[in-house]
Design a protein that fits this description.
heterodimer, A: about 250 residues, 10 helices, B: about 250 residues, alpha/beta, Rossmann fold, 6-stranded mixed sheet, 7 helices, 10 strands, globular, binds adenosine-5'-triphosphate, binds magnesium ion
Chain lengths: ~250, ~250
């Protein structure tokens, strides 16, 4: 509730600034500054012709597919790095380094290898989030309290049993945080990927707004991107996180 | 002999002298042996060697004639910090070792309930770990250790993180449970009183040499009482002896 009031105040302030800066003082050009009313109008228009829904749906689908692949690759690489000393020593620094690359850096490769296709976008998403997941997996396992694994060893746990019955559940809270962070990387990378292609999606709708010099559309798409990001975070990851912590008495 | 330590030695790489030296000890099946010694004298190290969590730098550990090589279910450890899994509730924790061993579900349930009753926790079986007290956690850990039917139960100061009253209560129960089950137990403590109360034999480690300073048989019949004259007398005598050896 307090959040909603705050948003209303924020929008009112935004409208006020627009009014003073553009209408009263004439400091800014109207085509360079978005206006709440204009964004709302664009929202209604893009909703009624179905563009916004289609764009959001397409982006979300790409995001989810890319993310799921990134999770699989990320966890596999993370487990390997964690398990083999050689990889821990040699591959982990590389993964750490690559992970700091902004995802847009993968765009040239993706276009060369996959053309202007959905696969090119997925490639950017995967490269943008898989390695951050690997690093979290490795860290999550390293942070397990040694007493858990020791206790399991003296109860006869085999390597496989250790992974299933101890390492996985013990690292779960940190793992979920890592996956959540991986999602936010994936969602950002998706936008870097989408702005380069012409297939319908939020990124492409944003660029279309720029090409049409429609700053309100640009703003609208930005708001939608943020909103989708927040909804996924709050409705999925935070819920899972809270449930796990509550079960263990940590929240 | 269930457990035999022969010339056991542990010298950590980064330390000047050996932590444990020429440890010779034979523990019979069904015997309750307590190890005492000052803090840092190597008690936990000894237990970790027997558990297979650390490798000795010399000597041998034989369990029923077979050399110990790495950790295993035949030497379950009960740690000072309970080592229960916070993602499982009380009874799931107690069943953990049986589940690893592939014990059938019904038998797991029966056995878990049996030992939960033994430690008086049957009414708390579905509680999450974070909702029970420290004492109850150690009882859970004890029940879990008992379900393993290990050849030797290893206990590293299992009650020392508890308040005095709870700790006394639990050692009384451990005495009762040991009398009922006759498990072979290697018990580590820094309290001479606890050692004399629980042990068939008390093994005192010397902090300087890393060797066994003395082995004392405790012939007081069970159940023992800490206020009985013979207990007080023997405790005093052993404390003097251990103190004398420590300097
Ligand atoms: N992994 C290790 N590496 C190096 N030195 C170690 C290691 N573990 C223990 N030590 C050393 O060995 C000695 C004995 O330690 P240990 O934990 O066995 O003592 P303890 O008798 O159990 O003490 P406490 O009563 O405080 O638990 C200590 O001096 C300690 O510093
Ligand atoms: Mg110790």
């Amino acid at each position: 509730m307090g959040m909603i009031i705050f948003l209303v105040i924020l929008i009112a302030a935004w409208q006020g600034f627009y009014w003073i800066g553009v209408d009263v003082l004439g400091l800014w050009k109207p085509y360079a500054v978005p206006e709440p009313a204009g964004v709302a109008k664009r929202f209604v228009e893009l909703c009624s012709d179905g563009t916004l829904f289609e764009a959001t749906f397409n982006s979300l689908m790409r995001g989810i597919v890319g993310y799921v692949i990134a999770v699989i690759i990320g966890i596999a690489v993370g487990l390997l790095i964690n398990h083999f000393k050689y990889l821990q020593k040699n591959l982990k620094p590389v993964v750490l380094g690559v992970q700091t690359l902004p995802s847009v850096c993968w765009v040239p490769f993706s276009i060369l290898w996959f053309g202007l296709s959905t696969n090119a976008i997925l490639f950017v998403v995967i490269m943008g989030s898989a390695f951050s997941i690997s690093i979290s997996v490795d860290n999550a396992i390293k942070n397990i309290q040694p007493i858990y694994t020791k206790a399991a060893l003296t109860m006869g746990a085999t390597k496989k049993q250790m992974y299933i019955n101890v390492i996985f559940p013990a690292s779960l809270p940190e793992l979920v945080s890592g996956l959540k962070q991986g999602w936010s990387f994936a969602w950002r990378a998706l936008m870097s990927g989408e702005v380069m292609t012409t297939s319908i999606g939020l990124g492409q709708t944003l660029i279309m707004g720029r090409d049409l010099a429609d700053i309100n559309q640009v703003m609208l798409v930005m708001v939608v991107i943020v909103a989708v990001g927040i909804i996924i975070d709050k409705c999925i990851f935070s819920v899972i996180e809270k449930r796990i912590l509550k079960k263990r008495g940590l929240a | 002999m269930a457990l035999v330590l022969k010339g056991l030695k542990k010298h950590f790489e980064n330390s000047e002298k050996a932590t444990l030296n020429e440890i010779d000890l034979e523990i019979e099946s069904g015997e309750f042996v307590c190890i005492v010694g000052a803090s840092g004298c190597g008690k936990s190290t000894l237990l970790n060697l027997v558990a297979g969590l650390e490798k000795p730098t010399g000597g041998q550990i034989l369990l029923d004639g077979e050399e110990v090589n790495g950790p295993g279910a035949d030497r379950t450890v009960m740690f000072q910090e309970h080592g229960l899994f916070p993602w499982l509730n009380v009874i799931e924790n107690v069943k953990f070792g049986m589940k690893l061993a592939g014990v059938p579900k019904e038998e797991q349930e029966k056995k878990a309930m049996h030992y939960l009753e033994m430690v008086h926790l049957q009414d708390y079986k579905d509680y999450p770990i974070h909702q029970i007290s420290g004492g109850m956690r150690q009882r859970t850990a004890l029940a879990r250790a008992l379900t393993m039917d290990s050849k030797v139960l290893l206990m590293d100061e299992p009650f020392s993180a508890l308040d005095k009253q709870t700790s006394n209560r639990l050692r009384e129960e451990l005495q009762r449970i040991w009398m009922e089950t006759k498990k072979t137990i290697l018990f580590i403590t820094h309290s001479v009183e606890e050692a004399v109360y629980l042990g068939d034999r008390v093994v005192a480690l010397s902090p300087d040499t890393g060797r066994i300073a003395s082995i004392i048989s405790i012939d007081i019949p069970r159940p023992r009482h800490v206020y009985s004259p013979e207990f007080v007398e023997l405790r005093h005598q052993i404390m003097e002896q251990v103190r004398g050896e420590a300097v």
